[in-house]
Amino acid sequence: MLVSYTSSAQGLHTIIEITDLCRQSQTGWVSEGDSTFDYIGGLSVRVLLAVANTDVGRDELAFEHQHPMKKPSIRPVLAIVSDLIHQNVNDVNINMIILALDILSLMGRQEAAQSTILTSTMAFWHALQLVIVHGTHPSKNQLVCAALRCVRVLAGFEGMDAAPRPDVQNALTALVPMWTPTFMAAKSPVDEIVSIVFQDLYVPQFIWFDDMRCEVQAYLDTLLEFQVPPQSFYDVARQFSFDALNGEPMVGGIFLRVYKQGPDRALPPAVAADFCEQLLVFLYDHAIPGRPRYDETLLALECFALLTETSAPDVERSCLSSFSEPPLLHALGLFMTMGVPKSNNGGFDVDAVQRRDAATTCMRALARHCDDATVLAPLSPFCQDMLAMAELQAGETDTPLACLQELCEASPDIAKHVLTSTVWITLFAMMIQAKHYVTEDQHMAADTLRRPAAAVWDALLHGSDDDDVQQLALERLKLLLPYALIQTLVDDPDEFDDEFEESAFDAELIWNDHTRGDLRSHVEYLLSQPNPSFPDDQMDYTHLDHGVVVGDFYLDLFLQNPEATSLRHPFHIASQLVAVWQQELANLIPLASQSMMSPPFSLPELVERGVDSAGLVNKLTNALVFIYREYVDVKATVEDDTTLCTDLMHVLEQCQTERAIGFPQTCVLRLMQVFATNHIFDTAEGLQALLMPLVRKHQDPILVLDIVRTILETHLGKPKPQQAFDALHVVRELGMLAVVMGYVDGSADMSNVRRPVECQALAISISRMLQPLDLDPSPIQATPIATTRASLPNMPTAPPRPSVDVMPRPTATPSFVKQLSIPTVRSIGRRSMPANYPYSRNHGMQSKPQPRKLVSEVSIDSASVDHSFIAPLVPTTAPESHSDASDPRTSAAFHRVDEEGSEQDASEYEVDIPSEVEFDLHNDQGTPPPAEEYDL
Predict the structure, then answer these.
(1) pLDDT tens digits, residue range 58-78?
(2) Which of the four, 465, 672, 709, 894, has the lowest number of CB atoms within 10 Å?
């Protein structure tokens, strides 16, 4: 009833008029025991509280002073309520003050009323004073809660319709630092908000103790006593400061000394990011010693390092989000470049040195804890200064080089800057101690920087995940160092210093005092040049060449005595040799093309024709064959990780297509012999490509037959389901069986074959491997060679049909013979047969020892060799085998036939590697030739 009455304008004005008249007539009117005016005035205030608790009532109260029906003698309701707050707090007035604060809190939820209260009354300061003064008194708890509620509403922390007041909030935070906008807007309990004001705090964000509370109380008393204009909230926030905090360094709202001392350094993410930016700005503005707060910069640098360790993500976000020119991180570089000796007395500025070390610590902290490498990019211009600092502190500390190492590991941008500017030359000179020093002390001090500089190079080579940085570092080192020393630096930088000072003379490295001195002089010359140009200014080692040099390899020096050379990096050398070999062979094949009617060109013939690259290809082939056979791990790596075997097949087919069937094809076959067990060659196409040189009368059929025999052994050694083709069928379809049988029965032209018996033994081994594959019980015979050109592709004319006489296979008769245990002979190379060997020409004769001959003095007489004779086989202890056995195997059983034609089982001789078994023939005339031993 009362609320509805007061909702009308006339009723509200009547209530306000009653409240004002009672307030002007009496001083205290809350209790019923007082006068009539006191009682009526208390009721009217409670009516105003009820009106302010409604939305309509708040709107009416906000604009009641503008109503035309209002009497001029009646004060506005805000003035009446504010007057109630000014009363002294005692037991009589406390309830009325609480009512007045509640009315203001409710009216402050309306935006217009909120603005009127802040601009025309001192209610905000009165309410804050009540909280500060009476917050510790339990009896005044309701009063304190009402005052705090009024402060929160007027500052915009409460109320749906109330607008935030940043100027009021900043003034409140300036007086009570713990009451930050975030804390006050979090709707924390009233007891917690009040209790924090009366606690002593000593944390990075806040320092609060009793003296500061007294200062706030005195300041509020002054404001209320002198009636400072209510709209001066901005001035309060800007001008007020605590005298108790004088001398306490603070940046970005963080007390530096408290933050450094710890132990609690945890900051909210937003606060930490802002603190980082404010620190860098402060350091940049006060980097010059003459600035007012220069003395606090050392503490600020230490705090920045701690902030980076504890809040690295926030530091990253702050550095990446700030855009300034120059970047904020340049402040660290400014302090790092300080501490240079003064020109007047040659001493050091101790303060500057301390700040330089602190700035270096900050950079190292950034490199260790920041995950985003782009944060460190602004520090690139200070890399050269770090090296200068390292030279100044040589013999004392290697901290600048350690800092540069960590920066290169963490940031590809810094590593690229080092390698693309002249910084890398200074760093290289430091690693090899290229500079000349006058005194022994300077020399010894510079020597201490060699290993830390090598560690920086290791960071450039391995520290970054960017492949471009690693490749660029290798290219820079190749301009000045041999590969062997570069690889030592890559593998173990700690050993580089010792390897650099150690002399060497081998196929990979020619290194001595003279070359070291030349390199140091050249690098010192580069340091004196403002802008060295490469590759014009690279180190020249051509005066050390001994013959042919391929990449990083002295080829002729190696071939002089390959067995005595132990390669440091065989895989790298082999890779370089293969690359040059493929390039030179591609140029040689067109020059070695010939007619199919002429004999294949040999190496001397190509040299006579002016093909100079043939000699280099021969040297490369010799070196590669030795390396692949000597270093098994290199061969395995090449087979697994490269396409060399496939490339060899393509090159062999290219040689046959372009009719380079002589020396180039021999080089290819020699490498294929090394990798003959590879699965790439175990194909029908590979077998065809290898058998074609036999048809074209290759100059070294032993090489071809040995490769074919190895491929067949690998093929037949697999289980039947894993065999990709039928070897016998392929050989017959290609028409190659007759060619192989021609070497078996001696009908093939072996006039130029140096070891005809070995060639025949290889052909026999191949034929016997193919024999168990034939389903026909009759022995394998030479397939009649067709007379059409289509049967022999790539042949100019069909060769004459050879005459092959094969004895019929007799029936095996079991017999027992005495078996002799003779071990299988495996040799590294060619061996001389003993002079009195049972199957030799000199059996039964004693001959004088003959002098050894060189290969150039040997003239092989092939006319004395009877190709129709097959040397008898050496008996072994192998078990008996039936002649009809059809299991695939690489050995065969030889049978003896007596004069009546009956067959006796002889012992089996297994030919594992025919090229390693030595055979010889008897001279039909019975005159033994001289027993000569050939040294190849």
Answers:
(1) 666 665 655 555 556 556 677
(2) 465
